[in-house]
Amino acid sequence: MNAKIQKTLIVAATVGCVGWLYWEPGFEPVIVLLVSLAGILAAFDNPRPLERFAVLLDDPDAWTKVGEGTWYHEDETDYRIVEGDEIRREFCEPWMESFPDPSAYSYHVNFLFRDAIVAQKTFVACDGLRYSVPLPKRNGIEFDISTSSLEFKASQLFFQAYPLQQRLGKAIRFVD
């Protein structure tokens, strides 16, 4: 049981007990119990921000780009994705050799919930800024990108000259 559910259960039990101890005519303990149960159910229905990001990113059409490098979800505006600072100029790895333009740099992409950074992922701007690629994980001599990862889902929002799997299918393994 996660910490949020535990805290909700403790609060619900405390409110319920206090309600029963201080019962007066006109005070309905049943209402206190219902409110407590509603809090418990809300804890189950309200996933953590990263889990919610993964669900929201399943529909890239529900995201809107604002200015340079900022996207927000149209229905749940507490969720934003913001391109961050450059990490390394002149970035180079073997999987990038298939691009005609060798210039690339790495940078952060920040996942924000209510203006707090809940995740920060590394991306690589490749091929003269025609691609924004999540930094692949090295697996021995191969490079992998998980198609279920937060960063791959976010990359679907960014400009790509061609779909990443089509362009990088021989250099990177796209795995679930």
Order of helices and strands: HHHEEEEEEEEHHE
Main β sheet profile: 6 strands, antiparallel
Beginning-to-end CA distance, first to last residue: 27 Å
**Share of residues in strands:** 25-35%
Strand order of the largest sheet: 1-2-3-4-5-6
Number of beta-strand segments? 9
Helix amount, in percent?
25-40%
Mean pLDDT: 82
Number of helices: 5
Indicate how many domains the architecture comprises.
2
Q: Radius of gyration, rounded?
A: 23 Å
Globally, the shape reads globular
Low-confidence stretches are none
Q: Look at the helices and sheets and give the structural class.
A: alpha+beta
Characterize the structure shown.
The protein has 176 residues and is of the alpha+beta class. The protein has 2 domains: 3-45; 49-175, no CATH class. It is built from 5 helices and 9 strands. It has helices spanning 3-21, 29-45, 49-56, 150-155, 164-168; strands spanning 63-65, 70-73, 79-89, 105-113, 116-126, 131-134, 137-139, 142-146, 173-175. Strands 1-2-3-4-5-6 form a 6-stranded antiparallel β-sheet. A 3-stranded mixed β-sheet has the order 7-8-9, with no helix packed on it. Helix 1 packs antiparallel against helix 2. The longest helix is centred in the first third of the chain and has 19 residues, at 3-21. It starts with a helix and ends with a strand. The mean pLDDT is 82.
